[in-house]
Design a protein that fits this description.
By secondary structure, the chain is of the alpha/beta class. It folds into two domains: 11-48 and 308-436, Lyase, Ornithine Decarboxylase, Chain A, domain 1 (Beta Barrel), CATH 2.40.37; 49-305, Alanine racemase (TIM Barrel), CATH 3.20.20. Helix content is 29%, strand content 24%. The protein contains 13 helices and 22 strands. It has helices at residues 33-40, 49-62, 81-89, 99-107, 124-133, 143-155, 194-203, 225-245, 271-288, 302-305, 339-343, 432-436, 443-446; strands at 2-3, 21-23, 25-28, 31-32, 44-48, 69-74, 93-96, 115-117, 137-140, 160-167, 189-190, 208-214, 251-253, 295-298, 309-320, 326-330, 349-351, 361-366, 375-382, 390-394, 414-419, 422-427. Strands 5, 15, 16, 17, 18, 19, 20, 21 and 22 form a nine-stranded mixed beta sheet that branches. Strands 6-7-8-9-10-12-13-14 form an eight-stranded parallel beta barrel, surrounded by four helices. It has a four-stranded antiparallel beta sheet with strand order 1-2-3-4. Strand 3 (25-28) and strand 4 (31-32) form a beta hairpin. Helix 5 packs across helix 6. It binds ligand LLP. Ligand LLP is lined by residues 74, 76-77, 95, 118, 178, 180, 216, 219-220, 255-258, 299-303, 339, 343, 399.
Length: 447
């Protein structure tokens, strides 16, 4: 059996799940992808459990030298009960941004004290619910939220433990829409507002307890120096605020953001190197600003789940534009993976069927949705693709299912978990009735 990846680099440095093999046809987690496609239909999200658990191990090893580490998974990358259950088993907490996310992780058995509630416009209902579920930390984003949180905590006679989200003013080289730490951002307080926030909490908001600071500088980050810069600013700010207000804040949440390898062009640093830089920077900056090394929260999303996921599609119509491109159309597209049309994200794919031809041709993978922008991959070399072949698009674990829609009133795909030649459905394919479940026809239209 030919092994594609052999001894592999760090998981986030691989395009394919670590168990990917080709023995004529393509296999992941010991399962034949063509068989899975036939049995469970396409489009189909497939998550390789070994890859996911290996990433978790890489994170745990990378931070084993730092005892005050809290690893939380940013569930916005992919959130459902089975995936959350695996993360619970692996000892991860969660970064959540909605009632839906913290409810899901609660249902998966998460210890809610290891759950952070983030977001720049938490609703009153969500804040009340988060207090009831006992989420461990609120990352407070703005003055409006502080006021609501304190009022609701008073009503419940609870103390809310908070981290103050602020924008450290770090510019990193990533797509504009997924950059969050620059100064003019919708997220968090500006650095110059921090005194006001702390004074308000100390003087007025008696049911809010400040534990520390939170920042997130962006996503799909390849430069570890950005983290060193972020940590330096966070520790400096923590030490200044502690000194000025006689506080004992000892927690820093440095956010997520580590990148993954979607195509051969991407060269993300390893999780091991990320860990080294974080630990070293925390040590150096703590010494520099004279504080004890704080408790560090990290909240990776993409680098945990992206590589473990692939999407299977069936190739349908093919079209050679005279003197133009060759389009290969699949039975999914922008509704199950909006990233290419939103961010010009690039992906790599292979035919899962046995490949007889050594000759390849350059094709464009188009989606089935009624929009010209619904193109999944441009300029992909494929060996004589045919209608009916199964196409496996790699690295779709993060921000595909979680950002999927029912555009064109198409049912969302099922999700399978594969491991040791076993495959289990963890999300059912939507049915036609699911599509109309929430619809109502008012009585007056029935007359
Ligand atoms: N923490 C905070 C506060 C965040 O805002 C995010 C992501 C994360 C952690 C996780 O970041 P990650 O490790 O996954 O990079 N939909 C976009 C990505 C948006 C990321 C938003 N925040 C995409 O598909 O690329």
């Amino acid at each position: 059996m030919g092994i594609n990846q052999g001894e592999h680099a760090g998981v986030n440095q691989c395009i394919k799940p670590v168990t990917t093999k080709r023995d004529g046809e393509l296999y992941i987690g010991g399962c034949n992808l063509k068989y899975l496609a036939e049995r469970f239909k396409t489009p189909l999200y497939v998550i390789d459990e070994s890859t996911l658990r290996e990433v978790c191990r890489e994170y745990k090893n990378a931070f084993s030298g730092y005892k005050n580490i809290k690893m939380t998974y940013a569930s916005k990358a992919l959130c459902n009960t089975a995936i959350s259950k695996i993360l619970v088993d692996e000892g991860f907490g969660f970064d959540t941004v909605s009632e839906g996310e913290f409810y899901t992780v609660y249902k998966s058995g998460a210890d809610m004290s290891n759950v952070t509630f983030n977001g720049n416009n938490k609703s009153v209902n969500e804040i009340v619910s988060a207090l009831e579920f006992g989420v461990g930390r609120f990352s407070v984003d703005n003055f409006y939220e502080l006021d609501i949180l304190n009022k609701e905590a008073v009503k419940k006679n609870k103390i809310a433990d908070v981290l103050i989200r602020f924008t450290p003013g770090i510019e990193c080289h990533t797509h504009d829409y997924i950059k969050t730490g620059q100064t003019d951002s919708k997220f968090g307080f500006d650095k110059i507002q921090l005194d006001e926030v702390v004074e308000l909490i100390l003087n007025q908001y008696k049911n809010i307890n400040i534990k520390g600071l939170h920042a997130h500088i962006g996503s799909q980050i390849f430069e570890l120096q950005s983290y060193a810069d972020e940590i330096d600013i966070l520790i400096k700010t923590l030490s200044e605020l502690n000194n000025k207000y006689n506080l004992v804040m000892d927690e820093l949440n440095i956010g997520g953001g580590l990148g993954v390898k979607y195509t051969e062009k991407d060269h993300p640093p390893s999780i091991a190197d990320f860990g080294k830089v974080v630990i070293e920077s925390v040590k150096v900056s703590s010494q520099k600003y004279g504080i004890n090394p704080p408790i560090i929260y990290i909240e990776p999303g993409r680098s945990i789940i992206s590589t473990a996921g692939v999407t299977l599609y069936t190739i349908g119509s093919m079209k050679q534009v005279p003197n133009g491109r060759k389009y290969i159309t699949v039975d999914g597209g922008m509704a199950d993976n909006p990233r290419p049309s939103m961010y010009h994200a690039e992906y790599y794919a292979e035919i899962a069927d046995d490949i007889n031809s050594k000759e390849t041709e350059c094709v464009t993978i188009a989606g089935r949705y009624c929009e010209s922008g619904d193109i999944l991959i441009e300029n992909l070399e494929l060996p004589s693709p045919k209608s009916g072949d199964i196409l496996c698009v790699y690295n779709t674990g993060a921000y595909n299912y979680s950002m999927a829609s029912n555009y064109n009133r198409v049912q969302k795909p099922a999700m399978l978990l594969v491991n040791n030649s076993q495959s289990d459905i963890i999300v059912n394919r939507e049915t036609l009735d699911d599509l109309i479940r929430a619809d109502l026809i008012p009585d007056r239209l029935r007359r």
